[in-house]
Amino acid sequence: MIKIFIAVVLLSSVLFSYEMDYTKDTEGLVKGMKVHKAPNWVAKIELTNGKKVFFVSPKAMIEFYHHPGKWFDVGVKSEDDMKDVIVTDFTTLKPINARGAFYVYGSNMVSPIGDDLPAFATYDAAADYSKKHNGKRILNFKEIPEALIKLLNGRI
User: Fold this and answer.
1) I want to staple 18 with a disulfide (CB 3.0 to 4.6 A). Which of 30, 79, 95, 125 is the partner?
2) Domain assignments of the chain as residue spans, ordered by start
3) Which DSSP string do the residues of 91-136 spell out, in sequence order?
């Protein structure tokens, strides 16, 4: 029984692990900046066609996520074209599922593109960061409206 449990744990860690496979030359789609310069902010969307789209921060990735057609040359029409949506855990620097992550709004830390939403694998990690950095609110992926991204970008 223990061997089966260990096998399941190992298999799930392989199946559900993510990779941030960018290089020094990789540029974020939305802002066109080199993503390697701020590794704790990097986000990525892997498309069903195999293409990988990188972003300099969660905010930039969510902006794309809400309106992928704005970047028509990528070939994404809807969420159905997105296989994996990945962000970097701000504290551990490990790639995590963006749809299951927690984001801190209103902290005193900024990404290379300004006010942003640092991502965390757990609510507790987000809450700890929020306390240390004057965060205003912790949100899950579905709670991040397009209007918040516009506000963070200074468009409201």
Assistant:
1) 95
2) 2-152
3) TT--EEEGGG-EEEES-S--BTTBS---EESSHHHHHHHHHHTT--
